[in-house]
Amino acid sequence: MESRSLVRTAYDGLKRSLAYVFLFSFCVNLLLLVPPIYMLQLYSRVITTENLDALLLFTVVALFLMVCMAFFDWIRSQMLIRLGNHFEDNLLESLYRYNFFQKVNRIRDEDKLNGLSELESIKRFITGPNIIAFFDVPWIPVFLIALFAFHFLIGLFALSCVLLLMAIAFGNEYLSRSLPAYDAKSPRQLQANLHNSDAAIAMGMMPALVKRWKTSRRSQSMQSAELDIYTSSFSTVSKHLRLIAQSAILGLGAYLLIKQEISLGLMIASSILLGRSMAPIEQVVRSWSSFVQVRRDFRLLDRVLQNGPNCYCAETMQLTHRPFEAGVIHAQNISVSAPASGFISLRDASFQLPPGTVTAITGESGVGKSSLLKSIIGIWPVHEGRLKIDDVDMSNCDERYRQRFFGYLPQDVQLFDGSIAENIARFAEVEPAKVIKAAREAGLHSLILRLPRAYETLIGSEGMSLSGGQRQRIALARALYNDPQIVVLDEPNANLDRFGEQCLHRAIDHLKQKGKTVIIVSHRPSILNHVDQVFHISDGQMTHVPREDANTTTRKQNKPISELEHA
Fold this sequence. Notes:
- The protein is an alpha/beta fold.
- The chain has 22 helices and twelve strands.
- Strand 9, helix 20 and strand 10 form a beta-alpha-beta unit.
- The protein is elongated, with a radius of gyration of 35 Å.
- It is a multi-pass membrane protein.
- It is found in: Cell membrane.
């Protein structure tokens, strides 16, 4: 399955069900003939003959058919609701994975979730009332045939009105296609400004930012309003055209009644059926702006899932299902680069990291230390060379084994919405004993117990606000959860106080005693006393250095600015 066809495939899966919706629409539209036919029978067979038995019979049959019509209409709406939910379910996982991979690979930095709002828009259209009109339009000929059966002139007049209304609909379509696609830039701009709210308020940037945002917002509002103006104008014209046509056909019917070519019942029924035949087109014109937006959302969603690797759908991932064993990391002539930039920060590096060793990677900021860690644990692919763990290529690692085998503390610590226990357990099934064990190893257990709800305390965007050090220690406990064989720590002591750093050192020593493979990136020299070997990255090259020399190098990198200026 190609990634570009994910949206099309999800749509193709709905076609059979849409055919049933189409069939029920035929039944509903056919049964819409019941009220005018009932009225004709009353005029021609009940009122003139004063036959009460016929009245009862026609009334019972008409009520039964109209109840059937309501039932079919309800089934149709329920089917569309289920189809919308099914379409969303088929693409949710792929979109979730897509946004994760886009963020991890730094293809975009903003927090906008690409594709999710478009998917929600498509679902609302499928489950909403506007789509019903598109299923009713193909059955307009049913009403036109009935009007031609009444009288040829009546049918011809109705056909002319329907064609005129369809011309208005096509004119609306032509003009809407010429308009540029709406780009919701201002919400993203506001969201980006909110991330820097402290700096904006502290430095008096608010007036300038407000002016800039209002200008952007005004431009987009005008862009969106242009389509709404066209749709509103065409909708008004179509609405009043239908009212005029219904009145005019009454006049035509009165003329034919005077000529004794039709009955009074046919004259009134003609007006009702003409309104029924024009109503779906009028509804389509009224909802055209929604349809245009959904059509754009569909194309954008299809384009979103075309870009990038075939990793957005779990079924397309070619995974190695073999579990790891010892945790031997072996790199042979690897080059590392960030996927978005393509800049190679590390070239031709070879090393082997056996279990039971703690390895530190040092170097100045921006030399590629974090990039190397992400390649080791399989977040980023290596640019060149081979990187394996126990002879397993990390780019094809099954997520089940990744969760069990790896512990990772990223440089930029972010916790997820949920409880502390859920975060430590990586949102798998929470096993209290394992959660407490990981928290104790991170020196976090007593701190958690002092919180309002202990391990059930909610954190994240809607929960309790934590300090940088608290977040980092919870992330450390998450990395240690379930006793992983390989633990990768990127700047694990960046936000820790002395006590937190002592807990980190104890955790590292404990991991070494248990025979784990530990890799650390840090600028603080104190942590080097707990490592076995040190690799230094500089100018794209990685070299093995003695631990004593690494201590000296790290202290030089962390010199105060005054000393560096003096030097």
